[in-house]
Structure formats: C-alpha cells, structure tokens
Design brief:
Layout lengths: L8 H7 L6 H7 L4 H16 L2 E5 L1 E5 L27 H13 L4 E5 L8 H14 L4 E4 L2 H11 L3 H11 L14 H7 L6 H13 L4 E7 L5 H18 L2 E8 L6 H4 L9 H15 L10 H4 L1 H7 L6 E4 L6 H4 L8 H9 L4 E5 L5 E4 L1
Parallel strand pairs: 1-7, 1-8, 2-3, 3-4, 5-6
Antiparallel strand pairs: 8-9
Helix pairs in contact: 3-12, 4-5, 5-7, 6-9, 9-10, 10-12
Length: 363
C-alpha cells in the first residue's frame, strides 16, 4: 500500500476507492504532483492493469470549411479561402481503402461545420465506406457536428443519429467537448454548441447504442474549477448512460490559432500541468470511466511515456493523416510498431485494441 507522507484527504479517499467530490478535485489541483501521480498510477493499475492499449486508426477530415470561428482552432477555413476543401464520398473511400491496406481497424471522421452539406452527404459517405469495408469501425462526427447538422437541416438530433447509424455509423469521437463550463466556453469557441447541448447530444447517441469517446481541451485560459467541473459532468453522464469508451484530455496547441495571434495565450502549458491534469482525471473518473488516454500527437512521444506513469492506460492510436494538430504545428503519423516500442521502453505491455477496447493482439 502506498503511504502518504503528507496527509491529503482526497488522496486517502482515492486510495480507499471512494468517489471524489468537486472540492476534492479542486484540492488535487494544488496537491503535491508526484504523490498525486503515484496515487493515480496505483489507481490505474488496480482498475485496468499494466497493459497499454492503442488502435490502428486513420484520421479523415472530410472538410476544413467551418461556419464557426473558434479562437483555439488553427484548422478551420471559410468556404472562399484558397486552401478550403471538401472531399467527395468517393475521394474519402479511396483514402480509407489505402488506410485499410495499412492495417487500420477504424476510421476517425471529423470536419468543420460546413454550411451547405446536406445530411445525405454524410449518409452516402458512410454507406460507401461500409459497403466496401464492412469490418471497419466508422467513428464519425462529434456531438458538436451532429448538433450543427440538426440545426442546419431542421431535423431532430435523434433522427439525425438514427439515419447515420442506419447508414453505417458505429461509434463517435469525443471532440467538440472543449470545456463545458459556460464561463470559459464562450471565450475559447465561437459558433459552436453549448456544453450542455454537447452533453445532451451525446446522451442521445448513447441511448441509441452509439458509444463515444469524450475529450477535454485544456492548457489555454482555464482555471482549475473549469477542469474539475468538466470531469464531474463527464462522470455524471457516464454513470447515467455508460456510453463513453475513453476520456482523452487534449493539450491546447498554440501555433497558428487566433488565441496566439491576439496575444490571449503566449505559450503552451507546462509538462507539469499536463501531468497534473492527467492524474486528476484518473482520480476523478475512477470507477465510472476507467480508460484514460494519452494523445501522444499533442504531447510528443517521450512526454507520452511519462504520462503513462501518471494514471493513463491508452495511447489512442496511430493517427494516420491527422490534420487538425498538424495545422497547429505538431507531427502526427506513427505506426503500431513504434507505439509498441514506446510502451515496452517503460516496462509495460503494448496491446493493439479495437475501437471498443477489445484486445486484438499483444505486440
């Protein structure tokens, strides 16, 4: 049993397997980092063991045209911009076919809020992929995209989801969550659903049997209470629906964003803060959502190794052709073998998984 040198009631509660309160989370945002990390890692070991999982995933951005203009995004373009693009369903399938040849088991499809693409475009996209690659998991469209499409087409969210599910949608990514708290959300996004609308949309997906990931964008202008509020809301919805697959904290990447250009944020958050957010996420969600993912694209591969010792058990995936973080200056591609090597170097066992965290093979 890990012995706490300095008494911390939240850490004592975490060691005892008790659910932590909002106030517990706030205290952990300033508790000794390395002790917090040690408790988070012990909790990880108890909940999910020592395997580190990841999937062979192909990231497909079908368009960068977006009606929103989020301050934290370097990816979006307006429809008349020279480098704006929208792929046809046929072009998408060609790229997916190449990814399947590379060993991808899922395709992760997200894009901008395109102001003129009809629902039928998305249905055709999914039918085309599924007809030619029936075993490929289609993980597509964030709750924010679904909410926008509902407003654009004047179609209820539930009906949108039913039609997409019937066309081949298997699961949903966790993007668009950002931070739920209204005091901070309006300062980092523009033209996107509220935090509650995101939660209501994803809950509807879960009720239809469409499971999803969930993310949290941190490291910009938030305060600790915004982080803890987000984690508590994720936990409460998970207790209600059980539909979340994994929680993915996303580190804000500064380059080429409006927040950089206007001086709102001048540098990315420290590695110390990264580790704290990851460790506290593990402790706040323990028992409700036990997969905590390190998005190595944002951290870099060496930092991802450290993060795996602060409560994380998953590295998301290979991220072939990930364009959103690339637009903010981050290298993105990796291979299953490279991720396995990263895991073995820290004495853990690498396991390739499918989208729903079922083991495919040990590497």
């Amino acid at each position: 049993m890990l012995q706490l040198v300095n008494h911390s009631e939240p850490l004592e509660k975490a060691l005892a397997g008790e659910e932590l309160t909002f106030q517990d989370g706030m205290e952990l945002m300033s508790t000794d980092l390395h002790v917090t990390g040690a408790v988070a890692d012990l909790t990880r070991q108890r909940r999910v063991g020592d395997d580190v999982t990841f999937t062979a995933s192909y990231y497909m951005n079908y368009t960068n045209v977006c009606a929103a203009s989020c301050q934290m995004c370097a990816f979006y373009r307006k429809k008349d911009d020279d480098d704006a693009y929208t792929l046809t369903p046929g072009q998408i399938e060609q790229r997916v076919a190449a990814a399947v040849q590379m060993g991808a088991t899922e395709v992760h499809i997200v894009g901008g809020f395109h102001p003129s693409l009809p629902l039928e475009y998305y249905e055709e996209m999914m039918r085309t992929i599924k007809s030619r690659h029936p075993d490929l998991n289609i993980k597509a469209l964030t709750a924010a995209e679904i909410f926008y499409l509902s407003k654009l087409s004047k179609t209820p969210v539930r009906r949108i989801l039913e039609r997409l599910r019937d066309a081949g949608l298997d699961t949903m990514p966790g993007g668009g969550a950002e931070l739920f708290h209204p005091d901070i959300r309006g300062q980092i996004i523009r033209g996107k659903c509220t935090g509650q609308e995101w939660l209501d949309t994803i809950a509807e997906a879960h009720r239809l049997g469409i499971r999803s990931n969930v993310t949290m964008l941190y490291g910009h202008i938030e305060d600790p209470e915004h982080i803890i509020d987000h984690l508590v809301r994720v936990r409460e919805l998970q207790k209600e629906t059980g539909g979340f697959i994994t929680f993915i904290p996303l580190k804000f990447s500064l380059d080429n964003t409006e927040m950089e250009k206007n001086g709102q944020v001048t540098e990315e958050c420290s590695a110390i803060y990264d580790l704290r957010v990851l460790a506290v996420s593990r402790l706040m969600l323990a028992g409700a959502l036990d997969n905590i993912s390190v998005y190595w694209v944002a951290y870099g591969k060496k930092m991802a190794q450290v993060a795996l010792s602060y409560g994380c058990n998953d590295m998301v995936g290979t991220a072939f052709s990930e364009e959103i973080y690339r637009a903010a200056g981050k290298p993105t591609d990796s291979s299953v073998e490279e991720l396995a090597s990263i895991v073995r170097e820290i004495g853990r066992r690498p396991v390739q998984r499918d989208t729903l965290f079922r083991a495919i093979r040990e590497l």
